[in-house]
């Protein structure tokens, strides 16, 4: 725990230092741009830093990494957190979500700025457009910070491989995000028997790879890991990432707002076509399925309707099915981990982290 806290502090310090340098650039253009940096700081403060932790564990899993300069992996871990913040800003726009971690989402912050200033036009339009630009800015900054870290690497081959893995992650998560919004709208014309498989594909590319697998591999690549070592981390990271997102999907429907920072049942209002929903639909009779389909995705769902859908999902047995899937995926991850060349002490640290990310409560 102490080591994780130390990493979080190092990553936060690296982010803060980086933002100071970028603040000088944007405020030189115009003091009106200070909101971009201020809101960036807000979204980059706190959080569990799971991606940063997996990146560090990937680095530590490589023999000899303890003797290396750690600045490249700290920069990569910080870059992953900035990339994550960018993805969340854009995700909240796509989902019309007003909150993030219990506070206003980026587009709502910009709306408030517009309203407080008494500016022309519609606050909603200004908020959405400004948040898109903030997300784009954060994406660019994540690249810049990563490049700064790679320049400090003594191994140019490892640096190139780390950059390649980061680039692939960025492409895959964008593709996964598109698949997510596609499924929310195209499910109606897809074969019923394919919906579960399609929902699982969204999990893999939108979340599992980018939340767990890619950070592990990026960290290990920067430490000079060979192909066999990287493949072992991929074999561990993918099922664990799937379990992580399956848990997140349960929290998106049943989570306590005071814990998750999002309104309870938010995924139901957004119409997320998750594995949980696919399993629910399979278990329901036609009339109940039509009832679910008729309400899912309605942003105006009230508390009684949310409760009704939650009860329907529970009664279908889908929650137990997802819990079984989580257990099976974690078991697969552990099997892969124990078959890997990773040192026992790092394996234990990864086991502990795996428990943390998949046992979050409602």
From TrEMBL:
<dbReference type="GO" id="GO:0008299">
    <property type="term" value="P:isoprenoid biosynthetic process"/>
</dbReference>
<dbReference type="InterPro" id="IPR033749">
    <property type="entry name" value="Polyprenyl_synt_CS"/>
</dbReference>
<dbReference type="InterPro" id="IPR008949">
    <property type="entry name" value="Isoprenoid_synthase_dom_sf"/>
</dbReference>
<comment type="similarity">
    <text>Belongs to the FPP/GGPP synthase family.</text>
</comment>
<keyword id="KW-0808">Transferase</keyword>
<dbReference type="InterPro" id="IPR000092">
    <property type="entry name" value="Polyprenyl_synt"/>
</dbReference>
<dbReference type="GO" id="GO:0004659">
    <property type="term" value="F:prenyltransferase activity"/>
</dbReference>
<keyword id="KW-0479">Metal-binding</keyword>
<protein>
    <submittedName>
        <fullName>Polyprenyl synthetase family protein</fullName>
    </submittedName>
</protein>
<keyword id="KW-0460">Magnesium</keyword>
<dbReference type="GO" id="GO:0046872">
    <property type="term" value="F:metal ion binding"/>
</dbReference>
<dbReference type="Pfam" id="PF00348">
    <property type="entry name" value="polyprenyl_synt"/>
</dbReference>
């Amino acid at each position: 725990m102490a080591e994780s806290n130390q990493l979080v502090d190092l990553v936060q310090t690296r982010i803060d230092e980086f933002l100071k340098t970028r603040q000088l650039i944007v405020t030189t253009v115009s003091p009106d741009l200070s909101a971009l940096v201020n809101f960036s700081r807000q979204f980059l403060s706190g959080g569990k830093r799971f991606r940063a932790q997996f990146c560090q564990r990937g680095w530590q899993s490589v023999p000899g990494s303890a003797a290396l300069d750690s600045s490249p992996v700290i920069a990569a871990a910080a870059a992953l957190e900035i990339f994550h913040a960018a993805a969340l800003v854009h995700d909240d726009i796509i989902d019309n979500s007003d909150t993030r971690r219990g506070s206003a989402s980026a587009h709502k912050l910009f709306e408030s700025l517009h309203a407080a200033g008494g500016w022309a036009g519609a606050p909603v339009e200004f908020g959405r457009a400004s948040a898109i630009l903030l997300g784009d800015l954060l994406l660019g900054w994540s690249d810049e910070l990563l490049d700064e870290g790679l320049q400090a690497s003594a191994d140019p081959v490892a640096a190139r491989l780390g950059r390649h893995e980061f680039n692939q992650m960025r492409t895959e998560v964008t593709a996964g995000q598109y698949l997510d919004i596609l499924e929310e709208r195209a499910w109606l014309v897809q074969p019923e028997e394919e919906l579960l498989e399609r929902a699982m594909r969204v999990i893999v590319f939108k979340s599992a790879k980018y939340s767990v697998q890619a950070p592990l591999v990026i960290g290990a690549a920067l430490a000079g890991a060979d192909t066999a070592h990287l493949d072992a981390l991929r074999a561990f990271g993918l099922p664990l990432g799937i379990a992580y997102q399956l848990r997140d999907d349960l929290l998106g429907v049943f989570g306590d707002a005071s814990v998750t920072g999002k309104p309870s049942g938010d995924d139901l209002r957004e119409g997320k076509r998750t594995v949980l929903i696919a399993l629910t639909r399979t278990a329901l009779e036609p009339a109940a399925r039509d009832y679910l389909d008729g309400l899912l995705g309605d942003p105006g769902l009230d508390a009684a309707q949310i409760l009704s859908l939650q009860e329907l999902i529970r009664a279908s047995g889908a929650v137990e099915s997802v819990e079984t899937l989580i257990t099976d995926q974690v078991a697969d991850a552990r099997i892969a981990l124990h078959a890997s060349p990773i040192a026992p002490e790092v394996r234990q640290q990864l086991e502990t982290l795996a428990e943390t990310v998949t046992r979050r409560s409602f």
